[in-house]
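Long-time lurker, first post. I've been practising inverse folding by hand and with some scripts of my own, and I keep getting stuck on stretches where the structure tokens seem ambiguous. Below is the full token string for one chain I'm working on. Before anyone asks, I'm not after the true native sequence, just a reasonable design that respects the backbone. If someone could post their per-position residues I'd love to compare against what I wrote down in my notebook.
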């Protein structure tokens, strides 16, 4: 076994094991008391929140769709384009996709969609924008009649042209020349450009990302990977933790334990050391899982919640450092925590390992310098 480096040596910064998880994106802060389903929560969102959620979903699909950029331009003069995704550096002057966000109390209907469909044609004749190659209606719920119309593009086109012929108010308000050019463009357009997307479809992808638990106040999916301590200790991760344990073993078990190899070979300290290393790596696995599965600093918040109680135990006077260590480990096993996101994974092994993480950072020290305690 490798001997423990002296405390004075410069140790390399702790490096994370390669993680199988995705780097988290920003999301709203979780509310542990919210037990509503995603659909129930969405209907309490503002239109702006629905646009932000849609933008997040579109960005998740950016690589698959070949998007160079995704932007929110929603507003009173967005010309029917709340979220835009462009595929070339020409942006809206080249091929692009339009996402029209609608969050109503009821499902989005065909009658509500038809006026919106006119906007991209008007924008194409009044501005330098090209017609989007795809136009998505994005709503929590889509009426079956609208879904059926979009699935039959020829029928949808006929319904749209009939809608223009009916001359509702928003059509009558258009300049006649603009309306004529927009109609001509629509007649020449393939209506397979129109699509519908509802919340259930969006969640199929969204639920696989770290944003899902925080956005909808749900625990993260999956569980921490098991990290097995290497035979040769990782000095970047374990140095101070092992240095503290060696002092404990020398004081309590045998002052002839000088090196890590001595500690591993000792009849009593060897098994104890193995268990503590296993616990440290379990805590590290949980830290990495939290880092990559839940936005924010959930694990650091959990550590702060636990440390405030353990420090009080460690401050007491103990005959030996081993007595202090064991008392702290025992208290860690029963301390009440307030982390609903990580609670299912914060078991006894991870609790013990967190104590050794604190020792690694000198937030807890097992052996004191006092001559007598």
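-- Answer (accepted) --
I ran through it position by position. Result:
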């Amino acid at each position: 076994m490798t001997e423990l480096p002296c405390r004075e040596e410069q140790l390399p910064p702790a490096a994370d094991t390669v993680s199988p998880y995705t780097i988290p994106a920003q999301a709203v802060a979780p509310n542990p008391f919210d037990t509503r389903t995603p659909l129930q929560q969405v209907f309490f969102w503002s239109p702006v929140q629905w646009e932000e959620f849609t933008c997040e979903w579109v960005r998740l699909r950016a690589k698959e769709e070949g998007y160079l950029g995704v932007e929110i331009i929603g507003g009173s003069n967005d010309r029917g384009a709340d979220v835009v995704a462009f595929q070339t550096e020409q942006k809206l002057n080249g091929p692009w996709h339009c996402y029209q966000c609608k969050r109503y109390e009821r499902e989005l209907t065909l009658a509500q969609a038809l006026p919106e469909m006119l906007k991209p044609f008007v924008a194409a004749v009044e501005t330098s924008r090209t017609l989007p190659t795809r136009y998505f209606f994005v709503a929590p719920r889509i009426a079956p009649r609208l879904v059926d119309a979009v699935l039959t593009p020829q029928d949808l086109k006929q319904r749209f042209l009939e809608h223009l012929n009916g001359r509702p108010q928003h059509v009558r308000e258009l300049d006649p020349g603009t309306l004529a050019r927009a109609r001509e463009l629509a007649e020449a357009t393939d209506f397979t450009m129109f699509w519908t997307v509802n919340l259930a479809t969006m969640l199929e992808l969204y639920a696989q990302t770290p944003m899902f638990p925080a956005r909808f106040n749900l625990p993260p999916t999956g569980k921490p990977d098991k990290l097995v301590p290497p035979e040769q200790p990782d000095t970047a991760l374990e140095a101070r933790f092992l240095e503290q344990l060696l002092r404990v073993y020398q004081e309590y078990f045998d002052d002839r334990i000088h090196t890590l190899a001595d500690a591993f070979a000792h009849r009593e300290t060897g098994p104890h050391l193995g268990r503590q290393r296993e616990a440290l790596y379990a805590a590290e696995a949980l830290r990495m899982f939290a880092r990559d599965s839940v936005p924010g600093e959930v694990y650091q918040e959990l550590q702060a919640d636990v440390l405030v109680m353990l420090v009080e135990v460690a401050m007491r006077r103990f005959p030996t450092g081993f007595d202090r260590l064991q008392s702290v480990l025992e208290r860690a096993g029963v301390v009440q925590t307030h982390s609903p996101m990580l609670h299912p994974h914060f078991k006894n092994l991870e609790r013990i390992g967190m104590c050794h993480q604190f020792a690694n950072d000198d937030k807890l020290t097992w052996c004191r310098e006092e001559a007598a305690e």
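A couple of notes from the structure itself: The chain has two domains: 38-215, 235-360. Residues 1-29 have pLDDT under 50 and may be disordered. Happy to go over any region you disagree with.
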